[in-house]
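Review box. Two proteins, two foldings.
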Amino acid sequence: MRVAVVTFDGFNELDSFIASALINRCREDGLEAFITTPEPVVTSMNGVEVTGQRPMEFVTEADVVLIGSGVKARDVVADDRLISRLRLDPARQLIGAQCSGALVLARLGLLGDMPVCTDRRSRPFVEAYDVTVLDAPFHAEGDIATAGGCLASQYLATWVITRTLGEDAARGVLDYVAPVGENQETVERALRTVRAGEVALR
């Protein structure tokens, strides 16, 4: 199972790197994430240059696609050529978006009546697409999920791992990365948030 972590110029490091790092702890179980970029090199909102591991066209092959956020999200959705490279198939893929990545899902017409989670700054722009924004960190319906707030990327990764490898695999990853002394609390909070987000508003 291959995961495309779509990372645009101006990306938020926390969103792309936390999700990919957590998912890549499952490589031995057959789940692997790749930073997927529209250009060979992209620069983060804080000036960190990153070489993409896969080109944008990889999204058509991936089993899971996570759309990262960044300060140029509005430019991304206004770029018809760039958007046309995001050929996603919700019938075959798990699709998730982090913060302003919800704008991309709205622009692609993948949300329907589904409400989303996003960050506070992106909220008015997402709502401009007539999409309901929840005051919650994570929400999923079927094979589409969104997360709001940089550190909510752990919930998006937890959802991917749980959906592909099962809850035990997610527990193992979360337990390893949790702050010392907060292991059980961290694991249970993440799993509880994902479970609650998956059943909300159904």
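Next protein.
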Amino acid sequence: MDAVRLIVTSRRALATGGGVPDLLTEVWQAQALAQAIGSRLALVGPPQLRGEATGLADLADHGIGVLERTPLDSGEPRAARLTELGDTRACLMHLGGLLGDVGIALVGIACAADDEATYWRCVEAIDAADEARDRVRDMLRKLADREAAPPRREAV
């Protein structure tokens, strides 16, 4: 499935997630999708984005690990359905929005946490999502810079 469609699906699921367990599952799903997109961009994306894409994948992976939670259902992660990235700019724009939504959801979970361990896991996951979103912004800037640069002319 196309990355943008998966991101839109994740954003909808995150927006309609019910209680804390459902929200944590959707945060996990979103982080897994960000990790998959970062990994794919690192392998086949534009060369100038590959370093940042590796960083994105690492940060999203850290966000997954911090939550210490796998989805409640036994099905495969949504990210496993990723078959193509499509337009890199559109993919990154939507992914940045998803990571922002993840941060907002985690703030809500942290504020409602009954125990200190959950609170601190959420805080660390918020940091990972925020840093991942920064990587996405950096990649979008690099794409814009590349498009704004005048084309090189060959010597005659």
